[in-house]
User: What shape does this take?
Amino acid sequence: MDDDGLLYRVYERRLGKELEAFDLPQHLGVIVDGNRRWAKAAGETTAQGHRVGAAKIVEFLSWCEDLGIPLVTVWMLSTDNLRRPPDELGALYGIITSVIEQITEAGYCVRLTGSADSLPEEMRAGIARLQQEKPPESRLTVNVAIGYGGREEIVDAVRELVRDLGAQGKGADEIAEEISVGSIAEHLYTRGQPDPDLIIRTSGEQRLSGFLLWQSVHSEFWFCETYWPGFRRIDLLRALRDYCRRERRFGA
Assistant: This one.
């Protein structure tokens, strides 16, 4: 091991020891951004950038499992991404399906977070099958955000809530009275789960782009310049250290 590698390992261990004194996030969100820019900088194809990024997701989840983080939401494909060229999108569907299979094989519980209607039928069927194959005692649940948009999620939640109330025979005024923060939250894609404590975005972009728009009202954010395929365990540890040092006020 060269001197740089040794220093890296020493620093990584030191960060890990620092975190032992803190409570880590119970729900971590990550926007995996920069696959195409990484590929361009590396002289690789866009598809190869997505493949390397997909492999990084599986590695990232193993780090989260080791740290005892029980819930991770990974944004793999946004509703805006659905407008990409058909050839790129077709390759991306295959890569995403493959990485979900790897996540399941790793023993993690997979949960779709997004609009399944926007995905090809074969992909929907594959994801539905994988969701049914839940490990009996998984230490990590992974929300895979595919065909996901924050505004679309809220619209879907309100529509589902209105349909449910209408099915109960309630009139327009009664339905309006039933709509609340709590009732909408019960119809989100992440229903029954805690809101994210920390959201990480790679590639230097400092915006959420609608990711977990409703759920992130009290989340902490951490942005880094690194493109997703180059994201390292030490980057995750630095993000967690920064999170642990903050005083969370929850709007107070």
